[in-house]
């Protein structure tokens, strides 16, 4: 979806990727807007029949152009910092469609959220609830609260992105959540709004979501018995995508299961997808700088490209696998290559042991890089971050110019 070959040339919608590389240089992230829009529509359709809201997890890809377009589609936003709230505001997003997640909300971030009138704070601890209450009192504004419950569900994903186990730093266990709801209910400064969880990322099965929703509903029913009414229930994000041949989460089956589990309860269902909205829409375009074919048996074939772990850290951080494709097929001899970056770390690779025909100067597309790609990039090795381009139909726009060295050095002084 969004990417296809025409006359052997890999294109994003109607635009050959080679044209973007020539215009903007490499490395560059390219996003297909039609792909994002189709994914949004798929999730929306999967949840048809229940009152629902899709709150895009901004941290997956926070480019303003994507936020503004998702906002026009009617998306809400799940944010984890004041910076992300600022982005949503600049993109024209309505604070009343914003939920604020995260274990470590600063006082400044909480104040910003209260003043903007965001829809809900997803509160993750007793201390955070106390701080939120104190700040509302000080600012003379009420805040809407949802408690992030940790349902102790194993999402069967990479340990760094599993967030719903009882050992995790996120949320509070159900018993403690009850206590926090009673406190919030009793407070004149807080309004009990909803209940939420987020059990992890890159989850391929429906079942963990079903179990999490069941656990949340049990708690919601107990609260209802005490006269504490909620208006929404938020099962977080984490919908798995296919990076290779593994199955993506079946959105239709997810929708069915959630509808069935929710039964006829008068609660708005919320989801917080990040990755599943943007991953497949993005590629990282990079150029082969040097080839270092194995000098002797037992050595590896190394292709050094101009993108590195600072541009895409997922392979190094999560042992993630991304498909790598030549932008134009060169018809040369196939070999197994390690695709590595220029950074001084052995962990600096984009892909290992890939069968490709490569020449120096060739363009490569690292696929499924729209989520947690640019968003997790850094300036390590004083490398300016890549440009970002948004394709829509036959046109493309530079939606973030490449950083310059002066951009990087500007905040520094000699002391
Ligand atoms: C990261 C995160 C998400 C999005 O996760 P994806 O795997 O990208 O869908 C949603 N909610 C919360 C609270 C998160 O931290």
Bound molecules: pyridoxal-5'-phosphate
Please state roughly what percent of the residues sit in beta strands, choosing from under 5%, 5-15%, 15-25%, 25-35%, 35-45% or over 45%. 15-25%
Question: Based on CA inertia axes, which overall geometry fits?
Answer: globular
Radius of gyration: 23 Å
Cα end-to-end separation? 51 Å
Quote the average pLDDT: 96
What does the model show?
This protein starts with a strand and ends in a 6-residue tail after the last helix. By secondary structure, it is α/β, with parallel strands linked by helices. Helix 8 (207-225) links the parallel strand 10 and strand 11. It contains twelve helices and 20 strands. Pyridoxal-5'-phosphate binds next to helix 10.
Short account of what is shown:
The protein has 415 residues and is α/β, with parallel strands linked by helices. It has helices at 17-24, 33-46, 64-73, 82-90, 107-116, 126-139, 174-186, 207-225, 251-262, 275-278, 314-318, 405-409, and strands at 3-6, 9-12, 15-16, 28-32, 52-57, 76-79, 98-100, 120-123, 143-148, 190-196, 232-234, 268-271, 282-292, 301-305, 324-326, 335-340, 349-356, 363-366, 387-392, 395-400. Strands 4, 13, 14, 15, 16, 17, 18, 19 and 20 form a nine-stranded mixed β-sheet that branches. An eight-stranded parallel beta barrel has the order 5-6-7-8-9-10-11-12, surrounded by five helices. A three-stranded antiparallel β-sheet has the order 1-2-3.
């Amino acid at each position: 979806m969004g990417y296809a070959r025409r006359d052997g040339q890999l294109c994003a919608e109607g635009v050959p990727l080679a044209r973007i590389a020539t215009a903007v240089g490499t490395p560059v992230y390219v996003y297909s807007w039609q792909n994002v829009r189709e994914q949004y529509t798929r999730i929306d359709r999967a949840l048809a029949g229940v009152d629902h809201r899709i709150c895009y997890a901004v941290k997956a890809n926070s480019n303003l152009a994507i936020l503004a377009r998702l906002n026009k589609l009617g998306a809400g936003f799940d944010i984890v910092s004041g910076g992300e709230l600022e982005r949503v505001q600049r993109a024209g997003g309505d604070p009343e469609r914003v939920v604020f997640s995260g274990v470590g909300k600063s006082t400044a971030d909480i104040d910003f959220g209260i003043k903007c009138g965001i829809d809900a704070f997803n509160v993750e601890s007793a201390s955070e609830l106390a701080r939120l209450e104190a700040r509302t009192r000080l600012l003379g504004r009420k805040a809407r609260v949802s408690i992030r419950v940790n349902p102790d569900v194993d999402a069967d994903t990479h340990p760094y992105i599993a967030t719903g186990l009882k050992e995790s730093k996120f949320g509070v266990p159900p018993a403690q959540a009850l206590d926090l709801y009673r406190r919030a209910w009793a407070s004149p400064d807080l309004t009990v709004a909803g209940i939420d969880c987020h059990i992890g990322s890159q989850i391929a099965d429906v079942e963990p979501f079903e179990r999490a929703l069941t656990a949340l509903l049990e708690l919601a029913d107990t609260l209802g018995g005490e006269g504490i009414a909620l208006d929404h229930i938020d099962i977080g994000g984490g919908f798995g995508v296919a990076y290779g041949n593994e199955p993506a989460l079946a959105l239709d089956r997810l929708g069915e299961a959630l509808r069935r589990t929710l039964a006829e309860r008068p609660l708005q269902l919320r989801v917080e997808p990040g990755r599943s909205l943007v991953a497949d829409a993005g590629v990282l375009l990079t150029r082969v700088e040097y080839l270092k074919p194995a000098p002797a048996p037992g050595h590896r074939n190394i292709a050094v490209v101009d993108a590195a772990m600072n541009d895409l850290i997922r392979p190094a951080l999560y042992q993630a696998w991304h498909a790598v494709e030549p932008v134009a097929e060169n018809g040369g001899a196939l070999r197994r290559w390690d695709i590595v970056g220029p950074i001084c770390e052995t962990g600096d690779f984009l892909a290992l042991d890939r069968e490709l025909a490569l020449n120096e100067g060739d363009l490569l597309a690292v696929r499924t890089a729209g989520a947690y790609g640019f968003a997790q990039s850094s300036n390590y090795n004083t490398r300016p971050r890549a440009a970002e381009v948004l394709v829509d139909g036959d046109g493309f726009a530079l939606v973030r110019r490449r950083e310059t060295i002066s951009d990087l050095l500007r905040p520094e002084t000699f002391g």
